[in-house]
Amino acid sequence: MAMTKYMHPRNKYKNKLDFASLAASYPAFAEYVHTGPSSGKPTIDFSDKNAVRELSRTLLACDFGLKVTIPSDSLVPTIPLRLNYLLWLEDLLNWTENCGENVHGIDIGTGASCVYPLLAARKNGWRMTATDIREESVKVAEENVKGNNLEDLISIVKVEDEQKILVGVLPEGKTTYDFCMCNPPFFRSDSETNSMSKSRTILRDPPKNGFSGAKAELVAPGGELEFVRRIIADSKLLLTKIRIYTSMVGHKNNANELVKELQSSGAKSLTKTEFCQGNTTRWGIAWTFCPEIRLPPLQQQVVHNKKLFQPMELTIPEEIESIEYNVYCLMNRIREIFVSLQFEVSEKGKAMSPGSKKACFEVRAVRNTWSNRRRKRRQEQSEPKTKKQRVEEEEEDPNLLSFKAAACVVEKKIVFKLTWTQGSLGRDALHQIMQYLMNELRIKNK
Ligand SMILES: C[S@@+](CC[C@H](N)C(=O)[O-])C[C@H]1O[C@@H](n2cnc3c(N)ncnc32)[C@H](O)[C@@H]1O
């Protein structure tokens, strides 16, 4: 089963790549496109390092207007995964209400492609400080920045001592940073790079050994675990100089181990996520020493994405009070209920009409207006809210909950579905919303 649907909801590579149209616009890429023997559709040979490199260059050019050199001995950055990490950072900054214009981030180990800073600067206008230990990579990274006219936003720092990560690397001074990010060297040894899985698609990363970048890019003493431990050690010294520390982690066990260590590190808040692309999952961890920052709760992030996106279904019984039994009337009534809860509702696809057999809304809630509503109303009547309570309830969280509400006819019955798409409240909130709708529509629990 294609797993792309579990990618970040805003990841444009959720949908299948159109190799034919990319080939039509990018002649250098066209050289690698052929008809797949089993699918009969245009594809590339994912075991061909040059083809994969050209695909990354083409996506960066086509979707972000970036012209990027990726030297033949360097790691080829797969773009869907890089985008998943960046989108998560956007979410964290939104969550902490730091989505202003002056975001300044750090990319530890930027590589020759300088892919994260280029994407962050071009896509979001963020200022980025990028570091790397490898002379050759720093040189090409600088050329990539210059070639895209992004020198005003991106600066590159050459690390002189491989033991150093942040402390002793960041320019001295009072500058504070909004976040740091890192795709750490994965391997403990050269031999480990040779035992990578053989199978690969565009969505897989890190690549099998034939694709690996130079040893210095991929290998570090103690592998990713030790590398991230060094970021944690530096974070305990730098504290609030960087508001949110993050890293990608390639192994689930390492991610769990690092989370455990962070729990006793003195960090004020921490969280973890999964980056799903193709058949590969990577993990993201984030922590902060800023007391005012509350990262999304850990327990909501560990639910496997597959479950998160599973729709919650309700077969609508034929007798519901005050509405006719058809998709149009039901969804109009549901829209009214959502609007009364102050949700933002937009209809997806073709506009509904009285004969519609299906309909779908995209819904966003920025405040919890549904849970315990009756109790709250009763309480309010007997005891008016304090000003503090009112302010708290009126506070908006742009990342609270987004979901889809859809109805369709299956064997003459209307099936109604709620599907979580994103938001800190997680999928559980949909149970409450479904129950709320059932109460409003006077549908009894079976
Ligand atoms: C897995 S690569 C990631 C490259 C790029 N960020 C990407 O995602 O495609 C790890 C990078 O970390 C760099 N590196 C290793 N030790 C480092 C250190 N102490 N400080 C900065 N970079 C380092 C390597 O040279 C390499 O470019």
Describe the structure.
With 446 residues, the protein is an alpha/beta fold. Helix content is 35%, strand content 20%. It is built from 16 helices and 14 strands. A seven-stranded mixed β-sheet has the order 5-4-3-6-7-9-8, sandwiched between helices. It has a five-stranded antiparallel β-sheet with strand order 10-14-13-12-11. A two-stranded antiparallel sheet has the order 1-2. The protein is globular, with a radius of gyration of 24 Å. The two termini are 33 Å apart. Bound molecules: S-adenosylmethionine (SAM). Its EC number is 2.1.1.-. InterPro entries: METTL16/PsiM (IPR017182), METTL16/RlmF (IPR010286), SAM-dependent_MTases_sf (IPR029063). It comes from Cloeon dipterum.
Task: Compute the number of strand runs.
Answer: 14
The unique ligands bound to this protein are: S-adenosylmethionine
> What is the number of helices?
16
- List the secondary-structure elements in sequence, H or E: HHEEHHEHEHEEHHHEHEEHHEHEEHHEEH
Report the β-strand fraction as a percent range: 15-25%
* Low-pLDDT residue spans: 197-212
Q: First CA to last CA: what distance?
A: 33 Å
Using only CA atoms, what is the Rg? 24 Å
Oligomeric state of the chains?
single chain
The helix content, as a percent range, equals: 25-40%
Structural class: alpha/beta
Shape: globular
What does the largest sheet look like?
7 strands, mixed
**Chain-averaged pLDDT:** 86
What is the spatial order of strands in the main beta sheet? 5-4-3-6-7-9-8
